[in-house]
Amino acid sequence: MELEDIEQYLQSLGGCQPRKVAGRIGWYVEGLLVMRPDVPGTILIRVPHSHREQLLIDYPETFGVPPRWEAHDKVQAQLAGDSKAIKLALSMTWEYQRAKRNSTGGL
Predict the structure, then answer these.
(1) Which fold has domain 3-102?
(2) Which of 67, 83, 85, 64 is closest to 75 using CA atoms?
(3) Per-residue pLDDT reduced to its tens digit, 6-62
């Protein structure tokens, strides 16, 4: 999977838009991070810890958590990994971020 494929998929999710923060491009829904490129060949996806652990178990060749991200609600995805798993994580994160924003009254 290429970064362009991921960006095209994110565009199909309502309200998911690219935005540059601290000089880095990321994709956000209502101001909350969904995905941003990480080290070459990877992306960083924001997911709650409960979902992150299941992704790591189900797709160990696709997802990992480098030590610097262990304390964060994030998972690193290999672009060469399972494209369906990556899309699953992205849509799950999109849903989670939308629900989070709606539950806080649209901070």
Answers:
(1) Aspartate Aminotransferase, domain 1 (3.90.1150)
(2) 64
(3) 999 999 998 999 999 888 999 999 889 999 999 999 999 999 888 899 999 999 999
What are the residues facing 33 on neighbouring strands?
A: 28
**Strands (DSSP E) along 8-79, which ranges?**
16-21, 24-29, 32-37, 42-46, 63-64, 74-78
Please tell me the predicted confidence (pLDDT) of residue 9: 96
- Measured in whole angstroms, the distance separating CA 90 from the mean position of its chain's CA atoms is 5
**DSSP 3-state percent helix, strand, coil across the chain (nearest 5):** 40, 30, 30
CB 47 within 8 A of CB 93: yes
Model pTM score: 0.89
Alpha helices, DSSP H, located in 34-82:
49-58
First to last CA, the chain: 34
- Gap between the Cα atoms of 107 and 100, Å rounded: 10
Check if the beta carbon of residue 98 is closer than 8 Å to that of residue 17.
no
